[in-house]
Design a protein that fits this description.
Helix content is 29%, strand content 23%. It is an alpha/beta fold. The chain has 3 domains: 316 residues, ANL, N-terminal domain (Rossmann fold, 3-Layer(aba) Sandwich), CATH 3.40.50.12780; 76 residues, Luciferase, domain 3 (Roll); 132 residues, ANL, C-terminal domain (GMP Synthetase, Chain A, domain 3), CATH 3.30.300. The strands form 5 sheets. Strands 2-1-11-10-12-13-14-15 form an 8-stranded mixed sheet. It has a 7-stranded mixed sheet with strand order 7-6-5-3-4-8-9. Strands 16, 17, 18, 19, 20, 21 and 22 form a 7-stranded antiparallel sheet that branches. A hairpin with a 7-residue loop joins strand 20 and strand 21. The longest helix has 22 residues. InterPro entries: AMP-dep_synth/lig_dom, ANL_N_sf.
Length: 603
Amino acid sequence: MGLFQAIRRELFYVTELSRLLRKLKSITPDSDYLTADLLEDSVDRHRRRPAFVGEGEAVSYAAFDARANRVANWALAQGLKSGDTVALYMGNRWDYIAIWYGLSKVGVVTALLNNQVTGKALAHGLTIAEARHVIVEGELSEAYATACDILECEMTAWVSDGGTRGIAGAEDFDAALQSVSDARPSREHRAHLRAKDACMKMYTSGTTGLPKAAIVAHTRALYYLQVFATLVRANPKDRMMMVLPLYHATGGLCGVGCALAFGGALIVRRKFSATRFWEDAVEHGATLFMYVGELCRFLVAADPHPLEKTHTIRAAIGNGLRPDVWPRFVKRTGIPRIVEFYGATEGNVGLVNLDSTPGAIGRIPPYLKKRFNVELVKFDMDAEAPVRDAQGRCIPCEPGEVGEAIGEIRPEDARHRFDGYQDREATEKKLLRNVFAEGDTWFRTGDLMRRDKLGYYYFVDRVGDTFRWKSENVATSEVAEVLGMDEGVVQANIYGVPVADYSGKAGMAALVVNEAFDLARLHALVHRELPHYARPLFLRIHQEDPSAHTTGTFKMKKTDLVKEGWDPDKVAEPLYFDDPESGAYKQLTPEFRARIERGDLRV
């Protein structure tokens, strides 16, 4: 890059960052400006404009506010007060946002339950919500009923859009709303609250173990609702395509804010469909799209659509877009700007890729590093903990080195707070103390990253996903990236499995493939692009839809795959192994497994 291009890059970065910080500087922990104030201000400016489109009719800002007001007045009628919690178990629909917005008007906290979970996991989420009331969508009443018998707390269910739907003791939520006023309740109900107080509770994805309830303060909600809207210069003419679950921060706050914080409209879809996506985007005039990486992979893997370049989407915002998918996604869709970011619902580490540099999750220029709370520290893969020096301090990584990303906790700064989980023990596990100085406290992201000399950050892997094989560390994301280069691979999920008496774990890849898949071609690619220790020893070919192997927020499921391992007697799907004798992938039979376990066949 020449001098002129470098100057232009830095000027763009500093200008955009300054504009963002000016917009967000009013968000402070002790401010009395809350989430409901932001949305009420937007309603008052745009009452006649559509707030939601795509569910059969357009819903105006005025109608949105009226519905939220009824929810607020319902809460008051139930004797709920600020600080109390109401759980919400509902799919994607505009009413979802109206409910938590309405509850926030009177200071009531909403626990946004994952509508993909049932039974024990749902009962767990309801229990740790510490709520006395739960609002249930009628279509999900049978799913909700699976948790009723094992609930550890008393809770009144209010069923929306379908009467009581067979839940014992349930109330009709819609009838209750019709019995109360749609007038805006007095702000006095929340006047005593400050932005550092809880606005809602969101749950970790639960890819391993049961989910945890993360407290989302108004500071964080206000930040998420405005940050990406500001970056893409959202305006009342924008329409945000929303196919992500609204119970998660990426869609439910970051994406929602791109529309509702600035007078635009939200195109709410019940779920993502690769076959319907472009038709919906064109039909409803989408200008913005909120993604997670797997959605982009699904769109690229789908057959070319005649509308995939006739849309009006000007920016895609999200996280997890892998380097192998990025250029193909841009080429296929023609979307001019990709705003990749890094962050966690509860975390205090935030990065954003302002200039769409492929593969980067964000950038902190070296000359601005002190303005941010982020550091990468050397990490011990075996101990799964940061390395400490002789003085007991963590060791910062140099450019190019892989380390865990941590964020200094600065309670006075809305961007750098950590409000923790409902469970204090879970909160404590995320804290790292006496990191660089006695008494300092940092948040552990659990994510491994590296940065280059220009300050661009690149995601490497989750702590725990990286494993050791043949005395070397294997990053699952980097292996998945290589496998994703093959035209026949739609999705690659990489994990480590124990093998006989070998130390460490061997790599295994669970693949979703298409009709172009070819074992010999994949074998050649793997051996050409990956070092010997990183090559997956085992392949498992999924026979189901790709979405069956991701969570509700499109993160890869691994727990059950690791448990089933590479035993053909336990796995009903096709299994292959990288046979050193033939130099090819061969079907893994019980006989081959026995030879490997005995040591007759060295791998």
